[in-house]
Amino acid sequence: MFRAIVDNIKGLWSLIVGLSITGRFFFSPVKTVHYPRQVVDPESLASYRGPLELVPADDVGGSKCVSCQMCVRACPGNCLTVIKGKEGKAPETYLYDFTLCCLCAACVESCPTSAIRFSHNVYLTARTREELHMDLLADLKARAAKASQ
Amino acid sequence: MNNLNFINPFSVREDPGSSVGDLYTQNFSRHAKTGTVILNLGPQHPSTHGVLRVIVELEGEYVIRAEPVLGYLHRMHEKMAEVKTPWQFIPNMGRVDYLHPVAWNWAQVGACERLAGLEVPERAEYLRVISCELNRIASHLMWWGAFVMDLGGVTPILYAFEEREKINDILQIITGSRLTISYFRFGGVSADIDERFVRLTREFIPYLRERLKMYKALVTDNVILRRRLEDIGPMGVDICQRYGATGPVLRAAGLPRDVRRDIPYGVYPKLDFAIPAGPSDDCFGRYLVRLFEVETSLNIVEQALNELPDGPVKMDKAPKANWKLPAGETYFAVEGARGQIGVHLVSDGGKTPYRLKLRAPSFCNLSLFAEAAKGVLLADAIAILGSLDLVIPEVDR
Ligand code: SF4
Ligand code: SF4
């Protein structure tokens, strides 16, 4: 009998302790980042694996790729299509299907010339599947054009 | 009522073995007693994490029989291992157990390394321990929040997520991902830690220790939680061993079995950590064991950071994506957040392994649920299910 009363009082006290904790957190500052009004700081995205991009070799949208097909063969998801151009070793087409990509880095680590890398784009959105079938050469040119402006 | 292909969960069936419901329900209800209710929990049910379905037979509020139905998340991981090169299979492991992907990484990579006899640099071994233990903490925190949410307390999971996000931030620095991590490589790891990683981890360790005190005051000491968990779902050593349960479930039953200690791998033998056993084999015991393991993991991370040697993080001439395994057979086990993760690898020397068998701890832990849930209240059955810490993709693989 006496034990039961003590237990109940202890139990009620534990509820008050719990409520005081949640109450304290209720009035503490917000912890989340309110996108799009706020964004996370770029430092914490430095190693984030976003969709692939080609590494620029020069300022006019050339790539370091030598069309050796190592990345294509390494990829577990068959995301990449690299077709060698008519002259030289530079690729004519470099297609990347982001819908199949598991961001495993097999391609990045097997490339002999370090021609591809992960972008840090966390804000990518798409309305259709086709938007995620990316042409990385076109993307590289667009980036070069934007940078030269 | 014949030829209906839906089941009204609240209908009391007059005739046991009627053809109401799908194949599983029909089969299950063939042995039902008259006057009981057959209820489907899941596959989409907030209290069963992921798509697990449990058919229960209820008499009043008491479960008299329960049967888990698996396979909703079966993704043929073992078959995929046979059609991909070992390297290409690494990202799969993160999808098998999304809460503790690093341990699965380790199991697969470790099995291949053991078969091929690869040497891993010392620094990489320490980085493996650090990432694996940080990930284990994240997994336990997620379980803690989800478990308390199963029992009706919605707030704690939000606090747990704050810590979990911090760990994700830390792991993202070296792995690049936040959930389905593929960090390990044959003969090392994919990236070295930087100054920011060390700083954030060192800040995180005392921070989480403080938070654990808050967890105790908020949840562990809470009278409602204790009444819901104490003496509920006792699972002794006997039932655990019959079903092959491992991890915190077995340790709560009082047997201090831990792969990190019993079949040492990596640099765990050099580290000093405690393996908890007990204090009780009920749901509350399993709860306490997991919280204790969070502290253990924090200690391990701290030690490993202090003793971290210099050197490369990957062996010279590390295998590439087209690497072939030598012919042979091996088994490698690691301790995941839920128990023993085992990889049985058979290779005939070809491009892809001949067979890769994954031993998932959740699968064994789930299989004792049917026996443990007999005769308990439905709400307690949910508590038992939650206390097993199931990850459904791991059950189905
Ligand atoms: S990250 Fe992996 S899945 Fe994606 S393109 Fe590269 S190799 Fe393929
Ligand atoms: S591995 Fe590198 S160089 Fe070879 S095709 Fe791929 S991106 Fe180009």
The CATH class of chain B is identified as Mainly Alpha
Give the CATH superfamily of chain B. Cytochrome-c3 Hydrogenase, chain B
Q: Tell me which CATH architecture of chain B applies here.
A: Orthogonal Bundle
Please give the oligomerization state of what you see: heterodimer
**Would you identify the regions of chain B where 5 or more consecutive residues have pLDDT less than 50?**
1-6
Please identify the top-level CATH class of the largest domain in chain A: Alpha Beta
The helix content of chain A is 25-40%
Strand content of chain A: 5-15%
Largest interface (CB within 8 Å) is between: A-B, 30 and 34 residues
Counting structural domains of chain A, the number is 2
Kindly state the number of beta strands of chain A.
5
Largest sheet of chain A: 3 strands, antiparallel
**Shape, principal axes of CA atoms of chain B:** globular
Mean pLDDT of chain A: 84
Whole-number total of structural domains of chain B: 1
Order of helices and strands of chain A: HEHEEHEEH
Percent of residues in β-strands of chain B: 5-15%
Protein structure class of chain B: mainly alpha
Instruction: Tell me the number of helical segments of chain A per DSSP (H or I, 4 or more residues long).
Output: 4
The spatial strand order of the largest sheet of chain B comes to 1-2-3
